[in-house]
């Protein structure tokens, strides 16, 4: 792998008197025994220029001649340019490559995959060294495709050894670091060559009809809305069930603030602490508590049958404001409605009465802090915004392959090792770098929550009527835990304590199973046949439950994960013995995965905790062996018949939460543009309007309004389906059953900073809240006998489509004129939409935006940015962008095409 034929040391002393200041090379006449020094390595890493270039995703160009007809490949190139000669060959460059490299197509370099996405590039004996200013290119073929510039992970690093064979401290190659765009605050990757060829670089297959969302495309999309500030006068997000204006009653000004009628707290059974968070949000937009403020009184809501938690009545009149509710969340939500009704510019509300109640009892947001860690403060800010928009479940994903993020009493290795990624091939002090994390522990993508942190998060959530649902994914997606417990085992064995060493061991050392997870790990799955695995699971759950108890919010739901299990036990001797001798009736190796889920689910139920899992793992279980109150999060893609599994699981009687990727995965790009952040395996254009359009009560009906990931129509057949034996394999929801809620998902593989995560979550979270709370009039009623839905069927009628368009016009104006300004005041770095624009044949620029009310700017080449108000004559290349209401941040700039 390494060559030892050093022709010169890297970066020999710049004090060589034989070189004049103008020379760009260093002497190459040194002894072949010369070797790396730390300073030389650092200097080379600082000066080497790396450029990553996607060449083509087209199978006919990228795949080998003997490839299968459906095989998908890409060709990419990495350029290396050194400003000075570096002829030394004894080095390794490590880098993250999301799609595995299959073949290197030139002979000077070798690339091998180390683990997951971590790859290692080394020179071959054909490598002639880096010559000053000369570009060295490694061309390679990879698996599947690369459709986003953010696919190309940062922080390449170089490793070498000194003269004594001791490895020097690794050095990050400076040119591969991310930078922060001064206008948008977003990460940019200067080492990535911009995509320019839509067909070769942004097309998945020859059937891919998705159109790159350039300015002209956005202009056509944005025509669906227009500037209409009158629509927002009484607008409220999320939309209430009923809202009636009071006639002949003057509007109420909150410019002097509000004063609380504390004497009414007793009759309302209200604790002042329950509404402090809601009052703080109201104060943040300019409505504090004041002796001269409008009087706000509280009362108990008259009990009615099936009154949902969170219901409230709100009356706004010139005599004062009256809020009625039956529990704390209702009072908080009423105050949140006041906050939403208020325009920050005039702080006035028209007199009205609102009767409101949520559509779904489960209104959730999932955040992955495992792949890349995100700060405690980010979570607290998120909880504030969730409460502001009446969301009530935080699904916190803290354990996965790439990181364990919660301190567990008695198992310090989980955070000492599992929370950190660094360059330690033995994984004795950390786990291997992934996702461009680089070689050092000291990076923000590493980290964990202490026990005290977690208690603070729970208490903060509880004060906002939000339940925290913890999740450590098992039995797959568990590499961080496995490597942590491996280190624990080695340390205790070295001390001679074999019993303690084996107590929480998670894998069979004699398992020879060859497997690969979706993320290309071959060692990330717990061995589900080992009792020590269940000791570990029980220990983790017990300790987490104790933290919840200390925080004052008992643990009532725990998410097992249970998804994407690769099957790491097929050749495990322990599993073979388990099959031969178990008392649980498990007679086939294929059943040990479901056995794990069923056993852990019942373990949780015995503790009084509801078990939850992702729909694929849950579908493998026997419902008769599962607790009746089990929860399933359905993450199946609707266009891939995902409605079938959703219906099957709700028919099981389980708590069924819709989490469908093409509408609820907020780590997907907002628009079909390779510069947008995020994964894209189920959607390349998931904007706020798309979420708003979601019909969660009739999943298959969405086939009438949506296209699949390649921009093609699809059909959803919800009629009963039977196999060759006449057994029903899928069918409609049983009458009387329904979904229990919806949840947005944020996975963090490509999202490295808190700012990037906020960009991806907001304002999509607001549309999640809208669909979780309000059932729109235009949603197609569900047909319990089953039906077929496609682009030609007419269940989604013309009248329904018109009503949806009318409602979106109001919502888009609400966001642009009213709501985003409140996110500004909260310091939330939401995504500012890219601007639609065209230039006609007379040279006139016309621009529009998804959220009317936001300011648009344009710039002619060589000139300053100008405010766009109306169509204007322009010359040369023109750029457009939008600005936040507070003027502090800009949206991403587009060239008008």
CATH architectural group of the domain at 38-201: Sandwich
Return the CATH topology of the domain at 38-201.
Immunoglobulin-like
Radius of gyration: 29 Å
Strand order of the largest sheet: 20-21-23-24-25-26-27-31
Instruction: Describe the global form.
Output: globular
Please state the average pLDDT score.
93
Low-pLDDT runs of 5+ residues are 1-33
| Percent helix range | 10-25%
Distance from N terminus to C terminus (CA atoms, Å) equals 48 Å
* Record field, number of beta strands: 39
Structural key phrases:
Chitobiase, domain 2; 24% helix; Immunoglobulin-like; alpha/beta; 20% strand; eight-stranded parallel beta barrel; single chain; 897 residues; six-stranded mixed sheet; 39 strands; 22 helices
Describe this structure in words.
With 897 residues, this protein is α/β, with parallel strands linked by helices. Among the domains are: 38-201, Immunoglobulin-like (Sandwich), CATH 2.60.40; 242-356, Chitobiase, domain 2. It is 24% helix and 20% strand. The chain has 22 helices and 39 strands. An eight-stranded parallel barrel has the order 20-21-23-24-25-26-27-31, surrounded by six helices. A six-stranded mixed β-sheet has the order 12-19-16-17-15-14. Strands 5-6-3-8-9 form a five-stranded antiparallel β-sheet, covered by helices on one side. Helix 6 (276-284) packs parallel to helix 7 (328-341). It starts with 37 loop residues before the first helix and ends with a strand. Keywords: Glycosidase, Hydrolase, Signal. Belongs to the glycosyl hydrolase 20 family. It is an enzyme of class 3 (hydrolase).
């Amino acid at each position: 792998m390494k060559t030892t034929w050093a022709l010169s040391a890297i970066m020999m002393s710049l004090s060589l008197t034989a070189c004049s200041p103008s020379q760009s090379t260093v002497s190459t006449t040194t002894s072949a025994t010369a070797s790396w020094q730390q300073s030389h390595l650092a200097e080379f890493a600082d000066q080497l220029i790396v450029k990553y270039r996607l060449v083509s995703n087209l199978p006919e160009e990228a795949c080998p001649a003997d490839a299968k007809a459906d095989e998908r490949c890409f060709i990419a190139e990495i350029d290396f340019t050194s400003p000075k000669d570096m002829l030394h060959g004894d080095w390794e460059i490590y880098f993250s490559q999301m799609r595995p490299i299959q073949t290197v197509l030139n002979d000077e370099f070798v690339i091998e995959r180390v683990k997951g996405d971590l790859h290692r590039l080394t020179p071959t004996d054909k490598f002639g060294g880096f010559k000053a200013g000369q570009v060295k290119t490694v061309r390679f073929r990879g698996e599947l495709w690369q459709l986003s510039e953010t696919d190309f992970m940062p922080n390449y690093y170089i490793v070498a050894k000194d003269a004594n064979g001791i490895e020097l401290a690794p050095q990050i190659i400076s040119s591969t670091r991310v930078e922060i765009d001064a206008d948008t605050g977003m990460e940019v990757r200067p080492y990535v060559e911009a995509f320019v060829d839509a067909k070769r670089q942004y097309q998945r297959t020859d059937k891919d009809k998705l159109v790159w969302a350039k300015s002209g495309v956005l202009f056509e999309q944005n025509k669906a809305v227009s500037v209409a500030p009158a629509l927002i006068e009484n607008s409220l997000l999320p939309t209430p069930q009923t809202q009636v204006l009071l006639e002949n009653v003057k509007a109420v000004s909150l410019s002097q603030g509000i004063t609380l009628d504390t004497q009414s707290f007793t009759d309302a059974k209200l604790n002042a602490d329950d509404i402090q968070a809601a009052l703080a949000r109201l104060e943040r937009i300019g409505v504090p508590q004041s002796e001269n403020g409008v009087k706000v009184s509280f009362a108990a809501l008259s009990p009615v049958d099936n009154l949902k938690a969170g219901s409230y009545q709100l009356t706004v009149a010139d005599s004062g404001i009256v809020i009625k509710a039956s529990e704390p969340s209702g009072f908080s939500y009423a105050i949140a409605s006041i906050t939403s009704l208020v325009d920050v510019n005039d702080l006035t509300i028209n007199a009205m009465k609102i009767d409101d109640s949520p559509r779904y009892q489960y209104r959730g947001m999932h955040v992955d802090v495992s792949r890349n860690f995100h700060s405690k403060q980010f979570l607290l800010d998120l909880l504030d915004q969730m409460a502001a928009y009446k969301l009530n479940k935080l699904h916190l994903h803290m354990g996965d392959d790439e990181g364990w993020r919660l301190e567990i009493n008695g198992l310090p290795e989980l955070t000492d090792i599992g929370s950190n990624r660094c360059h330690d091939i033995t994984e004795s002090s950390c786990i291997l770098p992934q996702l461009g994390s680089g070689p050092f522990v000291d990076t923000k993508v590493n980290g964990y929550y202490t026990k005290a942190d977690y208690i603070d998060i729970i208490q903060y959530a509880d004060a906002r009527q939000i339940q925290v649902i913890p999740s450590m994914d098992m039995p797959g997606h568990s590499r961080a835990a496995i490597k942590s417990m491996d280190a624990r085992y080695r340390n205790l064995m070295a001390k001679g304590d074999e019993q303690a060493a084996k107590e929480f061991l998670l894998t069979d050392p004699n398992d020879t199973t060859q497997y690969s997870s979706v993320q290309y790990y071959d060692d990330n799955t717990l061995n589900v046949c080992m009792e020590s695995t269940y000791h570990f699971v029980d220990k983790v759950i017990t300790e987490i439950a104790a933290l919840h108890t200390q925080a004052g919010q008992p643990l009532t739901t725990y998410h097992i994960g249970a998804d994407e299990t690769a099957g790491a036990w097929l050749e495990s001797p322990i599993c073979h013995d388990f099959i031969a001798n178990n008392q649980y009736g498990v007679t086939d190796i294929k059943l040990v995965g479901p056995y794990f889920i069923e056993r852990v689910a019942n373990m949780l139920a015995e503790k009084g905790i509801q078990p939850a899992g992702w729909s694929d793992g849950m579908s493998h279980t026997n419902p008769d062996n599962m607790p009746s109150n089990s929860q399933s999060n359905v993450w199946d893609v609707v266009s891939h018949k995902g409605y079938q599994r959703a219906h099957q699981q709700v028919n099981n009687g389980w708590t069924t939460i819709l989490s469908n990727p093409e509408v609820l995965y907020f780590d997907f790009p907002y628009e079909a543009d390779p510069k947008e952040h995020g994964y894209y395996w189920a959607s390349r254009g998931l904007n706020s309007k798309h979420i708003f359009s979601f019909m969660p009560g009739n999943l298959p009906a969405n086939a009438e309004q949506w296209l699949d990931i390649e921009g093609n129509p699809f059909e959803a057949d919800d009629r009963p389906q039977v196999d060759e034996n006449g057994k029903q394999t899928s069918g409609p929801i049983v009458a009387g059953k329904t979904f229990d809620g919806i949840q947005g998902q944020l996975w963090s593989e490509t999202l490295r900073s808190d700012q990037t995560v906020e960009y991806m979550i907001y304002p999509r979270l607001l549309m999640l809240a809208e669909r979780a709370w309000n059932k729109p009039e235009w949603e197609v009623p569900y047909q319990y006998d089953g039906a077929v839905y496609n682009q030609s069927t007419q269940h989604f009628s013309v009248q329904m489509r018109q009503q949806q368009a009318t409602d979106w016009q109001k919502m888009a104006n609400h966001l642009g004129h009213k709501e985003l300004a409140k996110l500004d005041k909260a310091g939330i770095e939401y995504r500012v939409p890219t601007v639609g624009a065209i230039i006609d044949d007379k040279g006139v620029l016309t621009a529009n935006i998804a959220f009317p009310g936001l300011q648009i700017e344009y710039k002619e080449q060589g000139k300053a940015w100008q405010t766009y108000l109306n169509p204007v004559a322009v010359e040369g290349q023109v750029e457009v962008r939008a600005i936040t209401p507070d003027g502090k941040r800009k949206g991403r700039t587009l060239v008008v095409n």
